Amino acid sequence: MTIIPVHAAGCRYDVVVGPLANAGRRLRELARGRPVPAVTDERVWALHGAVLADLLPVEPVFVPEGEAAKAWDQLRRLIAWLAELNLDRASPVLAFGGGSVGDLTGLAASLFKRGCPVVHVPTTLLAQVDSAVGGKTAIDAEDQKNLVGSFHQPALVLADVALLDTLDERQLRAGYAEVVKYALIGQDLRFDWLEDHGPAILSGDRLMREETVSQCITAKARLVEADPEDRTGVRALLNFGHTFGHAIESAAGLGTVLHGEAVAVGMALAFDFSAELGLCPHADAERVRRHLREAGLPTTLADTGVDRGALLPLMGADKKNEGGSLRLVLTRGIGDAFVARDVDPGRLADFLARAA
Ligand code: GLY
To answer: What is the DSSP string of 215-247?
Structure first.
């Protein structure tokens, strides 16, 4: 078991990487004798609800699987449910599922009575290595990914890699894209290590998964601590591939291309664009694309079937932009990403029109 403390925005919380069954005491302390409302989906509950219910009394509420959970009507439903339970501001809500469940639950928790604690128990690789840590919450709105959200740091995160054993292949591979991201931005994981060990991580080696999840969370904790609200450009590194990726998700129709799949394409495009600008070796771009492909991920716009003409306006609406200038995380090579301000929209449009 690994415990990674996070200090962010005046909060301190632990991310526990290890068996959920060992975390019962922590959960019961937070619950203070009351049943804990747990937001989840039917599939996750059927597979893993019993493990949670063995630890403490939980009251599940079900939301749709995947991106469909991140919607105004689901947010309204959750708030109404918390009101009906008459939850007090000190009582936690538990997010038991993938990134969408976590994003929605975090947002509801940040709003309910001006904020109540949220505990994340992520059940996908993507949520364990990225979205459950760091306090970003969101729903989609106006056909745009994560348009409405808040920062609300969790009270506790419990990442048990045993929960990944039942994850379907596509979801697992999508989560792996976020693992690769850490290596590409030069945080904790080495790309050549992933080239060697990626197949073991994907095929279910628990020790390897636990080590990988711990390394990703350690990296994320450091970046979140340095820039909790994504203002200075430090945390923005975690968005490598995401400006392209979010635009791809929105252009494809939210929920069509998985977040991690869109990020995989986005990272490949960020490398291609950087290489075209003379910032990074073409050989690095090719090496990254090869690894993502070998991991079974899409790496080209053609793979996603999106209308490439729709991408630039969506990228122009990205939250990283300021004062009308376009900001993108680009790269000087594997492990050397940086925030590029004032990206020339003409050059980007030209790139997008021709990109693979
Ligand atoms: N997923 C990027 C971040 O949390 O900042």
So the answer is: HHHHHHHHHHHH-TTS-SSSGGGGGTTHHHHHH
Mean pLDDT by 10 residues, the chain (356 residues): 94 97 94 95 97 96 97 98 95 97 98 98 98 98 93 98 97 98 96 97 96 98 96 95 95 93 98 97 98 98 94 82 82 97 92 93
Of the three residues 149, 167, 185, the one that is the final residue of a domain is 167
Q: 333 is in which domain, residue-wise? A: 174-354
CATH of residue 204's domain is 1.20.1090.10
113 and 20 fall within a common domain: yes
CB of 152 shorter than 6 A to ligand 1: no
Among 3, 6, 35, smallest CA distance to 22 is for: 3
The pTM is what? 0.95
Out of 167, 182, 202, a domain closes at 167
Query: From the CA of 50, how far away is ligand 1's center (Å)?
Result: 30
Contact, 95 vs 105, CB < 8 A? yes
Q: Coil, strand, or helix at residue 34?
A: coil
Q: Is the CB of 319 under 6 A from ligand 1?
A: no
Q: Name the residue at shortest CA distance from atom 2 of ligand 1.
A: 238
CA 330–ligand 1 middle distance (angstroms): 16
For residue 134 and ligand 1, the question of a CB distance below 6 A is answered with yes
